């Protein structure tokens, strides 16, 4: 299925597979995203039964993401294990400092290293690729400390490369929007709790089912919900009935109120409360 791929991308795929092939077994940190899914596919091709995909489950995992990870692993044919991570028991995590992600990944990689040792596997693999290096990602420090190997990074994959390779190799998540953990919706300094994460997860799932939006964040700030969707999906909310339904349902979930960020979601935008918001309260006459 790589015949129609550019030669340069075929070379990158081969480089990643060769790197993995030289390992004595590998545990792949599999989220429901395209990056780690591609690594899982390449690892399975390189190592067969000497690799396993592992998903960390906790309150910060969006409700539907585990199901997607399970389906992806099934499609690839790779063995899939779910481990329970307990980052919310760590005050360094739930107090929500700017380097919160470090403590999450530290917990995850501890679990994966323990599993790898039990299975007699040498390596832990993740889906880090070149574009990740341009962001502030404290989790990369935890990965380095844990000796995690990043085949896509080593083979110089960009995000665009990952999506193109995943599409040609038959991964259904090839165009799936990024979906960071639910804790990323809570402003730094505001404590993370299971109740807040549950509210956020339920709200995002409800809004997706109601409107069909794909790229969504429900930001939590002092019990208020700020809804962000990609700019081209904002029009799905410009309807009084939809706004009424969203506002009423989110209030039932425990939010004090809801608003729509008029600028739309942007990866580079700060999560500080935006002044460009439209209240979702009932506006019908």
Describe the structure.
By secondary structure, the chain is an alpha/beta fold. The chain folds into two domains: 7-168, Rossmann fold (3-Layer(aba) Sandwich); 193-279, Alpha-Beta Plaits. It is 41% helix and 14% strand. The protein has a four-stranded parallel β-sheet with strand order 3-2-1-4, with helices on both faces. Strands 5-6-7-8 form a four-stranded mixed β-sheet, covered by helices on one side. Helix 10 links the parallel strand 6 and strand 7. Helix 2 packs across helix 8 and helix 5 runs parallel beside helix 6 (139-145). The protein is globular. The termini are far apart.
Task: Give the biggest beta sheet.
Answer: 4 strands, parallel
Instruction: Give the N-to-C terminal Cα separation.
Output: 57 Å
Shape: globular
Whole-angstrom Rg: 20 Å
CATH class of the largest domain: Alpha Beta
Mean pLDDT figure: 92
Give the name of the CATH architecture of the largest domain: 3-Layer(aba) Sandwich
What is the secondary structure topology, with strand pairs?
Elements: H1 7-21, E1 26-29, H2 34-47, E2 51-57, H3 65-76, E3 79-84, H4 91-94, H5 100-119, E4 123-125, H6 139-145, H7 151-154, H8 159-168, H9 194-211, E5 216-221, E6 224-229, H10 240-253, E7 257-261, E8 277-279
Parallel strand pairs: 1-2, 1-4, 2-3, 6-7
Antiparallel strand pairs: 5-6, 7-8
What labels describe this entry?
alpha/beta; Rossmann fold; four-stranded mixed beta sheet; 2 domains; four-stranded parallel beta sheet; globular; Alpha-Beta Plaits; 10 helices
């Amino acid at each position: 299925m790589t015949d129609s791929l550019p030669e340069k991308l075929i070379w990158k795929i081969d480089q990643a597979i060769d790197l993995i092939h030289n390992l004595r077994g590998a545990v792949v940190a599999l989220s429901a995203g395209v990056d780690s899914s591609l690594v899982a596919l390449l690892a399975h091709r390189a190592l067969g039964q000497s690799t396993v995909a592992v998903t960390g489950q906790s309150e910060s995992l969006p409700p539907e993401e585990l199901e997607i990870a399970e389906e992806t692993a099934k499609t690839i044919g790779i063995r899939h294990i779910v481990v329970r991570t307990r980052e919310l028991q760590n005050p360094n995590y739930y107090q929500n400092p700017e380097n919160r992600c470090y403590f999450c990944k530290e917990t995850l990689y501890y679990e994966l290293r323990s599993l790898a040792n039990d299975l007699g596997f040498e390596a832990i693999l993740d889906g880090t690729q070149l574009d990740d290096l341009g962001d502030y990602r404290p989790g990369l420090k935890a990965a380095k400390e844990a000796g995690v190997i990043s085949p896509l990074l080593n083979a110089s994959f960009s995000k665009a490369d990952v999506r193109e390779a995943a599409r040609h190799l038959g991964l259904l998540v090839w165009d799936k929007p990024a979906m960071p953990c639910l804790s990323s919706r809570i402003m730094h300094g505001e404590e993370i709790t299971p109740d807040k994460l549950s509210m956020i997860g339920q709200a995002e799932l409800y809004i997706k089912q109601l409107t069909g939006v794909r790229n969504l964040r429900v930001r939590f700030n002092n019990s208020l919900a700020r809804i962000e969707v990609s700019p081209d999906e904002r029009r799905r909310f410009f309807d009084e009935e939809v706004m009424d339904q969203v506002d009423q349902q989110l209030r039932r979930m425990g939010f004090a109120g809801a608003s729509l960020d008029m600028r739309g979601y942007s990866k580079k935008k700060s999560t500080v409360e935006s002044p460009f918001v439209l209240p979702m309260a009932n506006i019908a006459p």
